[in-house]
Every structure is written in structure tokens, then in C-alpha cells.
Amino acid sequence: xxxxxxxxxxxxxxxxxTLAVGLRKVSLEFDTGExxxxxxxxxxxxxxxxxxxxxxxxxxxxxxxxxxxxTSHYTQKDWEKYREEYVSFIFQEYNVLxxxxxxxxxxxxxxxxxxxxxxxxxxxDLISKVGLEDKIHxxxxxxxxxxxQRTVIARALAKDSPVxxxxxxxxxxxxxxxxxxxxxxxxxxxxxxxIMVTHDFESVRxxxxxxxxxxxxxxxxxxxxxxxxxxxxxxxxxLKTASTGHFLRASASLGWALYRSKPIFTVFxxxxxxxPVLGLFGLSLFVSQTxxxxxxxxxxxxxxxxxxxxxxxxxxxxxxxxxxIASESGADSYIxxxxxxxxxxxxxxxxxxxxxxxxxxxxxxxEPPNDVDVGRLPExxxxxxxxxxxxxxxxxxADSVNDVDLNKYAGLSDMKxxxxxxxxxxxxxxxxxxxEEGLKNFTSYKMCEMTFDYxxxxxxxxxxxxxxxxxxxxxYSDLLAKDEIxxxxxxxxxxxxxxxxxxxxxxxxxxxxxxxxxxxxKTDFSALWVSTEFLPELTSDILKNGLTQSSLFFGSDSxxxxxxxxxxxxxxxxxxxDTERTSTDNLLTNALEIVGMAVLAFFLVLFLxxxxxxxxxxxVISTKGDIAVLRSAGIRSDILKAAFVFRMLxxxxxxxxxLAVTAAVIYLNPTTNGLFVFLHAGEYLLIFFGMLAxxxxxxxxxxxxxxxxxxxxxxxxxxxx
Length: 721
Fold this sequence. Notes:
The chain is 40% helix and 22% strand. The chain is an alpha/beta fold.
């Protein structure tokens, strides 16, 4: 059984509205151990015969058999597998990868059985065998013709295929180098089939075992000169299926080699890829900023697992009732007077010396701070710790806490800032942290303040009777007795009645005093001073018949949502704390902004996509010749495609590194942190995978176009690159 058999093979070329016959009914058999010289005049069909045997060119008539198996039904993938497992090429034009080193050229053809150290050792042994030990790391572009040809032979040996096809391998060499090449091919033919096209038969007469002469596309004669070497027993020449591991290793190794082979172009391509990546980063910042400004605010301060409950008919309920429904619904805890959680404290500071203005809002936090960057944790009910963005570090202090006035707009003028927790995510809302006792007192204070919207006192005195005085502010102090209330800016006398806007008379049971306690100073506003101890009791008295809203806390939002049906059975309305407040006031304005943002984003993405297409197309064109050589060397198309995709993805890595550095510089620097919206992991993943997807789609498209061209044509086109 012959290794390769041609039966009545015919080949026709068409072009420029003409037809040319390449081969006419050629029938030949070749087997292992033969060293065959194919001779004939230029244009007779020698190279065509070699290309058909090697699967580089197709045939229109007859049949080509490999181990008695026909190939006329072969697809491109089948021919690629055949070239990978069966054939090694040695061309007159060398077809080495000029930008690769000698070692890289040889290593890329090593089969899957070689990996790691054994791969390198095998490549070095083969290079030594062809006498290029001193050129191992030399780029092939710097080699002489003979050295390039020896590199190709070493690559052919590395592949260890049963068939070696050499197309005039000595045509461009001096006589000494040519003789060495022929001798080397003779040694190889001991256990392989070597078919060599030559125009100078006399130079190989003493070494070849057979001569096949082609004339005008037909076999003029086929003569045996000497016996062929005996084929090794149990030689395995069946097509093998490469493993997934080999595919991945080969693709990654070749992709990395392609990436390193042209450093100047690689650097240029990496620089070009920076623009679309940073463009996507800028687009993400713009979209996030726009959506943040357009997003509806929530009805309540969002706390994970928080569920706000109120009675359906607006009737009040007691803390005992709330405790019961909390137990029945499986809540972890509850807050009876929860309105403090939804109270927004606005901090404002104008520094005319620096032309500096700060204004932001804060809410109370029930959770302990993540960390204390400056100062310490609160130790009493008059101290607070603020969690604020790092962009406010100049305002609140870097090494120690600045003397900050929590002004009346924030409602915290009696509180002292003892510590600061800075964070870099400027999309988080600033928070106020207090001690448990401080939060309890402050909650009572704010509840009283929010309840006492309007208070009227009737005072009986020697000078004034029945006069009404308004108290707009409630203050508390440890210097007052529990049952005493000190009133400011009211003439001395006896308070005979207290009228509240809500009709409560809770203050009448306590003792009003007009004598100013030591340490409690008068204010510029009418006010009522009460004791710290008395404050929670006063709040309870006022709210015991008027509270209609409280909060339950569960382990997560999903647990809170599961508890809603049961709470509704008890007659409660339930709202998740992230329920959005809807408004129709700015619907048209918001819609126009969204449309404008979408149009701008579309054109920017389109521009970036076109830019990536341009970069990728140039990268494909720059590597077109290398891909043609690799295809001719029998590297499978799926490996080549994956390698090129891998090469292009590597080109994006420097852009991602620059993106990470840019983001770090922006967000870690207090000066720039507040200028751009903080992007979270999901948004960076969108940039990462979005860019990868564009590069992948575009690269695959261009690479597919290359592989639609035959190997023979691709090699010719590659010569011009």
C-alpha cells in the first residue's frame, strides 16, 4: 500500500478569461523511504504537482489517495488536518517567519507531545543538527539564504511528518550550501518520503532514489535510480486528533510569539487601543453622571433589609403593637420612632478667603463606621463621627479633625465632630454616626423639633397676662432637673396653658421655670430647654397617640419582601426603603436629556468601533504574510485563528493597565475624586468585556476573510507585504 497515490490527476487554472492546464492525467505512487527528484522545464507543472500532493492546491480531475483513502471529498478543514499531520514544506523562497527567531520558527512546528522543557530541548537539538547553534535567538530576517533554508529544514524536522516536500530548496544557494542541504534531505528520507523539485538533476543524481520528469503537465518518465530505504515497521501514519490542551497551548504560544515578533508595530497597536478603552471609560463616566442626576430619589433612606410600615387607615399604633408584629413577621429588630432615619441634614460652608463653597446632605447611620481615618469614635451623646468622600478631606482634616461647625442647617449645632471616616466611592451618601445614647437623645430631640412646629404659651405675670409667645426651638441639657422646663425670652410668670399645632398638652404636667440655670445660656431665638433625661419621655408622651409609621429590619431585602403579605394581613401598608419617589414635573426635560445622552453615546460608540476596526485591519494586514507561511507549514486554521485573536487581545492589555492607573489617580486623589462619578466593578467589567467583544468580533471577521483565500494564493499575496 502506497503512502500517497495519484490517479489520473488533472489541474486547470483560469484567469483573465483564459484557461491553462497545470497537470494532465498524472498517475504516480510514493512511499516512505523514497527520495524523489521531480524535474522538468520551468512551467511544466512541477510545483503544481508538489502543491497538490501537499494539499496547498486543489485538483479538478482524478483522485489523490492517502494510505488508499480518497481525498476528493476533503473540506478545507480536512486538508488543514492533513497538512498538520502529514506534510512539511521546504520552499525555494524559504517562507520563514522573518520577524521570528530561529528558535521560535522551529518551536512552532513541534507536535503536542512536546511541552515545557522537552519542547525547548527538542528544538535546540534540531537547530544543532542543521548547524545553526550560534543563531538560535537571531531574527530570521538577519540570516543568509542558506541559514534560512536550514531553519526551514529544522522546522520540517520538528514537525516530524511522514512527508517532506521541497520546492527547489537549493535554487538560491551556493554550491557548498546546496550540497549540504541535499545531504541533509537524504538523511531525512531514511524514514520519510522526501519529494524534491529541482531544475538541476545532476546535483542530486548521486543521492535521490528516483526521478520523475514532468513535461507540459504530464509525466514524461518515472525511473528508479536506486532502491529506497525500507519503511520502519509499525509506522503510524493515520491522522491524529489534537487534544484540547494542545489546541490551547499551541494557540497561546503562537499568539504570544506573534505579539512579540514585531515590537514596533505591537507598541503602536497598543497605543492605538488606549483611545477606545479610555473613550469607553469617559463614556461610562458621562452616562453614570447623567443617570445619577436624572434618577428619582427614594421615599426613605435606603437601608438593606429595612421595611417601612404604617397603618392603612392612618391610625396610630403603639410600640407594644410594633413589637408584636415584628415578632410575628420574623423581623430581627425595629425602630419605633424611625423618622430620624429619613431626615436629611444639610451641611454648608462658605469660605470667602478661598472662594470656597461646600454643600452636601447627610443621613443618620445605624451601622458602625467602616474605619476611623482621622480622630476617634464618639464617646458621648454630644459627639459624632462623619463618613464622607475623600474629596472633603481638606474641609474636615487629614491628620486631625478640623474645628467644624455643624451649622443650624444641619441641625447638629450642639454636636462636635470627633472623627472622620473617608471613603473613595463618591456615589455613597455621607453618613452621621453617634453613640447609642447619642442617637436615642438626638432622635427624641429631632422628633420634638419636628412635632413642635408651632407652640403657644399663655403666661400669667404681674406685668403681662394672657400674652402668646412662640417657641420655635427645642434644646436639651444635662443641667436641668428631669421635671423642669426652662423657657427663654418669655417674661417671668406662671405658664397657665400650652397650645400645640397638633393639640397636645404633654408639657403641662412639667414645671416651667424662668430662672436661668447655671451653664444654660440664652439663645437668639425663642426656645424651650429640657433635661436630657426628660427628652425621651417627652417624645413618648407626644407621640404615643400620633405615631403612624415605623420600620422593621430583616436580614436582607428578600426576607423583608417575603414578610410583606403577612404584615398586610394585620392591616399595615408596607414599603421597601428603596421605593422610588416618582414625579412628573421634569418628565419632558429628563426625556430630552436621556435622548441627547443616547444619541451622543451612540455616535461615540460608533466612532470607537470604527477606530478598533481600523486598528484590527492594519494588524491583520501586517501579519498576512506570516499567516500564509504558517498555513503552508501545516498549522491548523483553528489554532491560527485563535492565536491571532489572542495576539489582538494582548494588544488591549496595556490599555487596561492604563485604565486602571487612570482610575486610581482620579479616585485616590482627594482633589480629583469629587470631579467624576465613581465607577463600580460592574461598570469596569462592562468596559472590559465590551472592548474584548468588539476586538473579538472584528478580529474574527477579518481573519475569516484571510482564510477564504487558498494557501497558494495567500503565499503569493504575502510576498508583497
